[in-house]
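Re: NAI structure - here you go.
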Amino acid sequence: MNKKIAVIKGDGIGPEIIEESVKVLKKIEDKFGHSFELIYVDAGGAAIDKCGKALPQETIDVCLASDSVLLGAVGGPKYDSQPAENRPERALLGIRSLLGLYANLRPAKLFDQLRDASPLREEIVDAGIDFMVVRELTGGVYFGDHVTEEKDGEAVAYDVMKYSESEVKRIAKVAFDTARLRGKKVCSVDKANVLDSSKLWRKVVVEVAKDYPDVELSHMYVDNAAMQLCKNPAQFDVILTENMFGDILSDEASMITGTIGTIPSASFGDSTRGMYEPIHGSAPDIAGMDMANPIGTILSVAMMMKYSFHMENEAKVIEEAVGKVLDQGYRTKDMESANTTVIGCKEMGDRIAELIY
Ligand SMILES: NC(=O)C1=CN([C@@H]2O[C@H](COP(=O)(O)OP(=O)(O)OC[C@H]3O[C@@H](n4cnc5c(N)ncnc54)[C@H](O)[C@@H]3O)[C@@H](O)[C@H]2O)C=CC1
Ligand SMILES: CC(C)CC(=O)C(=O)O
Ligand SMILES: [Mg+2]
């Protein structure tokens, strides 16, 4: 199969983790006889450095003309003083919105090999951690008005969290469809005891659930959900939640599985074109040190194979290669535990790619 993939390296560890995932893409091409045309474009700080704009029009055009997008991560301290509308993070939000990627799937699954890396107690880990965060990605407070103004002699700032019925309905359907293929349970996370946007969210989710009588629906307030993720993560199958809550809860979910470095994500809308990226950021504290964990990005490639290209076998081969490297005891620093061998980002990528033959 021929596929066009727009590749955005981004900032910080972005270029390092993308380099390793491209090694994996090349091996998949060879093994399965596919042709992946990789078109490199810039977004975020790297784009600001080149042309002054965090999201150049060429990047948008190439992404729209591609079958999928692979992204490392954007942002970093160098760009924190940019005007709000030209920050790297806004470029990322812009791509998500312009491509209509309203659904973000973030799997939190504990690799058996990483049990010792989880900070949770053994009996909690033993109960199993395997759930999917279905995060709404193009609405909510990240996309509402952001205002700073002077009032009564001082600065006042506010950000608007807004959802329409149709926005909630379409992401709820994604969550119920996802649950049907898994454990048939959806926990909708909101703050309906306080927020109007959450009250609407809950009402619409209850409506959508009527079309899925085979899926069990529960509701949880987000503060409780943050606590339950540590207390009893085995209770969750699919967590459905709005943009910012999903952003925060998925970082927490990653840590209970050992590290944020291994969690991939898939973002999609109504077409098969998706964007695939690890859930972490640009990790400026370890950028350029060959310490980044490339597994989240490599598993994002596996999600691209599965969700955008319907290449189930290719996805499986990548996941198995990751599993084998972990079986052999190799870890990047963030996954280190007793009796493991710490290796760098490049070696991790090489070893995973070598196991695809
Ligand atoms: N999708 C994206 O492009 C995202 C971008 N950001 C941006 O990234 C920058 C840094 O943000 P932070 O809040 O520090 O979050 P971060 O996720 O970049 O880093 C948090 C911590 O996790 C570690 N970490 C992250 N990814 C890792 C990996 N693959 N391997 C090993 N360790 C890893 C980092 O070293 C750091 O200690 C900011 O400019 C932020 O806005 C943050 C989140 C997502
Ligand atoms: C720009 C941020 C919203 C990115 C982020 O933290 C994420 O999507 O996880
Ligand atoms: Mg985040």
